[in-house]
Amino acid sequence: MSLPFMKTQPETTANHHIIELRDVQKSYKSAAGEFPALKGIGLQIKAGEFVSIIGKSGSGKSTLLNMITGIDRPTSGEVLVNGTAVHELNENQLAAWRGGNLGIIFQFFQLLPALSLKQNVILPMDLAGKYKPRERRERAEHLLEIVGLADQMQKLPSMVSGGQQQRAAMARALANDPPIVIADEPTGNLDSKTAETVFGLFNDLVAQGKTVIIVTHDSSLAKRTHRTALIADGEIANEYVAKAMPTLTHEQLLSATHKIKPRQYEAGAMILVEGKNSDTFYIVSKGTVDVVLPRPNQSDVIAVELGPGKFFGEMEFFHDRRNKASIRACESCDVELLAISYDQLNELLNQSEATREALHRAADLHERENIQQREARV
User: What is the pTM of this model?
Assistant: First the structure.
């Protein structure tokens, strides 16, 4: 299915952060004392991205979602969405702001039971006053047709299946053409075929320029989005560590996130020199780095470029602790690397034999490729 009526985001917003959370903390008071649900969350999402938030039950997923939507307020920190400081709005301002900026899809649909599917979709437009009455009816019909409910729109929610209710909820979320669509476990109560249909609709929205965020416990679903923010115990694990070492558990990823140290390099800066002692494992988080091999009596050659989520230093860790090549920041961009000492890496790998084996295989493969490239250039 396609959504041709959806407007794409203006080019001026491309690559800008449409959502930004800055050091967001949220605590709840209970009989046992304060419970920290979110612990200094930092998150940036660009306009037009398809992002999944994943984590176990109780990890803080729903609380994080409530910060973005303004359903709840942070204890401290800032929440900026589409240019608005959401944490500073009062309840009346929040209601008006949501109507124009967010489409929210709840896990249990939350359609009004006394209204038909069509009336449920019309209601947000009535509240926002964004379209004329006739346009609201036509738009509701068109949205329901797009999600495959043209022949069901006059029925009450109780008269259709769960999957149909979810698609009606999607149509309702899109009623005011919001730039951001947020869904809480959107496929959690659906069969696999219906879930695939719903996921396809999300892809269509992204293709039309919408920013889509889904909260899910389904890791296979999360892998099909542009980016994944993994939350555990109220903290977000570094997504580039997760890409580099996907076999770590959520808790191990969080531990690795605490251990890494960001390092910044200007464009063209030398990072490692071949033959020097090595004591650090690196993951690229921003920009690209060039793996440089020397050639006798000729200029050096770039053997490979490594982008975000790629890593280096694993050959030296498993072999003789000397740099196998020179590494430099690309000539046209600044670079950020995530560095972890070999001692800390070894502690981490002692907790995950699968990750140790995966990195060891990568080290052996890259060592062979290194030798082959050098022999080819002699």
Answer: 0.82
Give dist(CA 325, CA 145) in Å, integer: 58
Looking from the CA of 40 toward its CB, the CA atoms found within 13 Å total 2
The sign of the dihedral angle between the CA atoms of 185, 190, 193, 198 is negative
Query: Look-up: residue for tokens 């670079």?
Result: 335
Question: Phi then psi for 369, rounded to 5 degrees?
Answer: -65, -40
Per-residue tens of pLDDT for the chain, all 378 residues: 444 444 434 433 445 899 999 999 999 988 888 899 999 999 999 999 999 999 888 889 889 999 999 999 999 999 999 999 999 999 999 988 998 899 998 877 889 999 999 999 999 999 888 899 999 999 999 999 988 899 999 999 999 998 899 889 999 999 999 999 999 888 777 778 878 888 888 999 999 899 999 998 888 888 889 999 999 899 999 999 999 999 999 889 999 999 999 999 999 999 999 989 999 999 999 999 999 877 666 667 788 899 999 999 999 999 888 888 899 999 999 999 999 999 999 999 999 999 999 999 999 998 888 878 777 765
Strands 335-341 and 298-306: what pairing? unpaired
Strands 102-105 and 180-184: parallel
Q: How far apart are CA 182 and CA 173, in angstroms?
A: 9
Q: Are 113 and 156 in contact, with CB atoms under 8 Å apart?
A: yes
Burial class (CB in 10 A: 0-12, 13-18, 19+), 236: buried
CA distance 132 to 229: 39
CA angle 352, 58, 94 (to 5 degrees): 130
188, 238, 237, 247: which is closest to 215 by C-alpha?
Answer: 188
Distance in angstroms (rounded) separating the CA atoms of residues 56 and 217: 6
